Amino acid sequence: MSERTEAWMRIVVGIVSGIVFGVWRYFIIVLAVINFIYAIFSGKRLKELAEMSEIWNTQFYVFQRYMIFVTNERPFPFRSLTKNMSKFGK
Predict the structure, then answer these.
(1) What's this model's pTM, rounded to 2 decimal places?
(2) Helix axes 47-67, 3-42, angle to 10 degrees
(3) Torsion of CA 55, 26, 39, 61, to 10 degrees
(4) Residue ranges of domains in the chain
């Protein structure tokens, strides 16, 4: 695919992925608040919620890289989810 065609595709990808990530972001905010409250009262975090939030973080990073022309790898939902960038400690 030519660079010009790929540039035009970024408009479509930006709109579709932008909507998906926008909705997904509010879900992540809710998870962060739950994890914060849980950590305050229990003294430990919910690792599963943090890892789920990292999935969004990684996918949004891939989306940003695509939208600013760093890469031509299309983001989710135009391809499968990318492996998480971060690993969580104990």
Answers:
(1) 0.80
(2) 160
(3) 30
(4) 3-67
